[in-house]
Design goal:
Elements (H helix, E strand, L loop, with lengths): L2 E2 L5 H10 L4 H12 L14 H10 E2 L4 E7 L5 E6 L5 E8 L4 E4 L3 E3 L8 H5 L1 E4 L2 H17 L9 E4 L9 H12 L11 E5 L3 H11 L2 E5 L5 H7 L8 H14 L5 E7 L7 H10 L5 E7 L13 H13 L4 E3 L5 H13 L5 H12 L3
Parallel strand pairs: 1-2, 6-9, 9-10, 10-11, 11-12, 12-13, 13-14
Antiparallel strand pairs: 3-4, 4-5, 5-6, 7-8
The structure holds S-adenosyl-L-homocysteine and iron/sulfur cluster.
The site of S-adenosyl-L-homocysteine has 17 residues, from strand 10 and strand 12.
């Protein structure tokens, strides 16, 4: 069994090289080859002594998760499905926009937090992704998009909004974040890397201390009674603690606002009165809102709010001076692509795959 070098950030790789009597600058060269050039073959790392290349071949490897499928929709959104073994599939979505390209990546296979409107949550928790599996999504997407001359944009932004709760897989997530920010790896600005959390308050503080990047918080309700039901982790970290944690985070954050995500559930959290309640709750937190039309999945008890009600909700927030965006819903062509995708994947991963795709539709 060789060591997968995609599991290391710069410090980890230096330590691994030191253990084997190799100098720090060699570790940096290899880091750059792997992440800046997308190279997984030691023999192609031409400025490294042949003897070291041979040594590396004997004890190490560069292995990202295997791509199961790659689907392009009419609007340019591109979905990569990765097999992470044991019947687990994860999905990564590339969203090209005018000024930027955003990659949405996963941090866990499944999720233990069981939010009532989330298909990943309903699937239960399978396991944490390794660093190589988290950063490997970016590594693979970069290689593929870089190699494709028709690709509209390269990746300028990363959001940890795929499957799983990033802060419940803290160590691996932070190591992967360090690689995203490292100039010898992906060199992304802290402002362009966003962690989305359902509100693990103590871990938000750790993130602020260890690797402050932009923050999105999945709010979905403006009072504890409703949020306890929708986002069960709220019973442990209720709203007043969460709001205080957001303000503490902002003291160290690269941006001067938190993005609150709010899924629009018909008749549950979408009334004008609830928009008012939301404004009152967040009055002392510099924030923006991102309204997400609910994406239904089989067996879910909710429906998406009708478009006029989402618009009204957004207007109330905006009239109060809070920047509010509403996420686009899926186009028909994506649904078609999705059906094709589900038909192509491995038997073992089919069930999970469908759910993953359904979850991600809404983010496109
Ligand atoms: N676990 C993290 C990040 C992954 S979920 C979190 O909860 O923030 C990313 C976003 O998608 C969250 O805001 C989540 O609440 C939302 N989401 C989950 N299921 C959804 C669904 N069926 N429809 C719309 N948004 C959903
Ligand atoms: Fe987990 Fe986020 Fe889904 Fe909640 S919304 S179950 S925290 S992935």
């Amino acid at each position: 069994m060789t060591v997968n070098l995609l599991d290391f950030d710069a410090a980890g790789l230096r330590a691994f090289f030191a253990e084997h009597g190799e100098k720090p600058f060699r570790a940096r060269q290899v880091l750059r080859w792997m992440h800046r050039s997308g190279q997984d073959d030691f023999d192609a790392m031409t400025d490294i002594a042949k003897s070291l290349r041979e040594k590396l071949r004997g004890m190490a490897s560069v292995i990202a998760p295997a791509i199961v499928s790659d689907t392009l929709s009419d609007d340019g959104t591109r979905k990569f499905l990765f097999d992470v073994g044991g019947g687990n599939a994860i999905e990564t979505v590339f969203i090209p926009e005018d000024e930027r390209g955003t990659l949405c990546i996963s941090t866990q296979a499944g999720c233990a937090l069981d939010c009532s409107f989330c298909s990943t949550g309903k699937q239960g928790f399978n396991r944490n992704l390794t660093v190589a599996e988290i950063i490997g999504q970016l590594w693979q997407a970069n290689r593929i998009l870089g190699a494709d001359p028709s690709a509209e944009r390269i990746i300028s932004n990363v959001v940890l909004m795929g499957m799983g709760e990033p802060l419940a897989n803290f160590e691996n997530t932070v190591t992967a974040l360090r690689l995203m920010l490292d100039d010898n790896a992906y060199g992304l600005s802290r402002r362009r890397v966003t962690v989305s959390t359902s509100g693990l308050v103590p871990v938000m503080d750790r993130l602020a201390d260890e690797c402050a990047v932009a923050l999105a918080v999945s709010l979905h309700a403006a009072n504890d009674k409703l949020r306890d039901e929708l986002v069960p982790i709220n019973r442990k970290y209720p709203l007043h603690e969460l709001m205080a944690a957001c303000n503490r985070y902002l003291l160290k954050a690269p941006r001067d606002f938190v993005t609150f995500e709010y899924v629009m559930l018909d008749g549950v959290n979408d009334s004008a009165a609830q928009a008012g309640e939301l404004l009152a709750l967040t009055r002392d937190v510099p924030c923006k809102f991102n309204l997400i039309p609910f994406n239904p999945f089989p067996g879910s008890p909710y429906r998406c709010s009708p478009a006029p009600r989402i618009r009204r909700f957004a207007e109330i927030l905006m009239e109060a001076g809070v920047v509010t965006t509403t996420r686009k819903t899926r186009g028909d062509d994506i649904a078609a692509a999705c059906g094709q995708l589900a038909g192509q994947v491995l038997d073992k991963t089919r069930r999970i795959t469908r759910r993953t795709i359904e979850l991600h539709e809404v983010r496109t």
